[in-house]
Design goal:
By secondary structure, the protein is an all-alpha fold. It is built from 17 helices and no strands. Helix 6 (about 105-115) packs antiparallel against helix 7, helix 14 (about 235-240) packs antiparallel against helix 15 and helix 16 packs antiparallel against helix 17.
Length: about 290
Amino acid sequence: MVDSNASTEVDPILLAQAETDALLRKVTEQIDLDSFDVNDAETLQLLVESLGDKRGMTRLRCAETLAEIGEAATPFLLDALANHANVVVRRAAAKTITLIADPTAVPNLIHSLLNDEDTVVKGSSIGALARIGEPSVQALLDILGSTDLPESTIGHAAWALAFIGAGAKEYLYRAIASDSPVVRGAVVGAIAKVAQEEPKDELFEILVKSLTDVDVDVRCEAAAALGNLAYKPAIPNLVELLERGDGETRRAAALSLMKVGDRAAIEPLQAALEKESEAAIQGVIKLAISQIK
């Protein structure tokens, strides 16, 4: 016998999930019929709220649906990114902005990168900045030139700049003259990426010139880049670095010559080995010679 007094309350979580599913079905149908109203603020807000659904595949569907709607969803996503109490929603908002790649989002993404307490939100924000591309470049360079930001943030910005690559080319040409060695080092890394995609003489000239930078990290970055690109015309310049006073530069030069792999480097490497006083660098030079042979 069924107890007539038994509770008939509906699980609020299941109810909310059912409402989200119905919302997604409705919006998907409207998008398919090209009848979705991009000015429907209530529906856009509900979709953004649904980014907090406990079901991962549903969150993905919400993000993809918002991405199909496009830039009309950007203001709602940016508001969630900046203000939502649920970190899951903030994370998903940043990832969805990555899919939309709306340039107007750059200042908000920078703010989240610098201020959000969640590392995933920070990482997703830098991913969106990288995906947006050229409109993000100046803000990324400003971060690289800052002296009071954590190394993790600087590293994120350098990665994004390299990811953007050719899209940042005109900025890179100017930024290589920056007073900040961190900026110059990041620019060298980004130019190396561009040179891989577009092997132009002017790009290689910047990398070769950076071998004589006053900062050791920039010199080493340039040497590594030229080695990875196997740029043989740089061999004489790399050989000159084997005479530098600091060990890090000599080590980087030897490794670069090894990667270039031209037998013309064997004799100067052997000469450098005879002069080298640091055991660790002697080992690197010996390795380079054996690999080239």
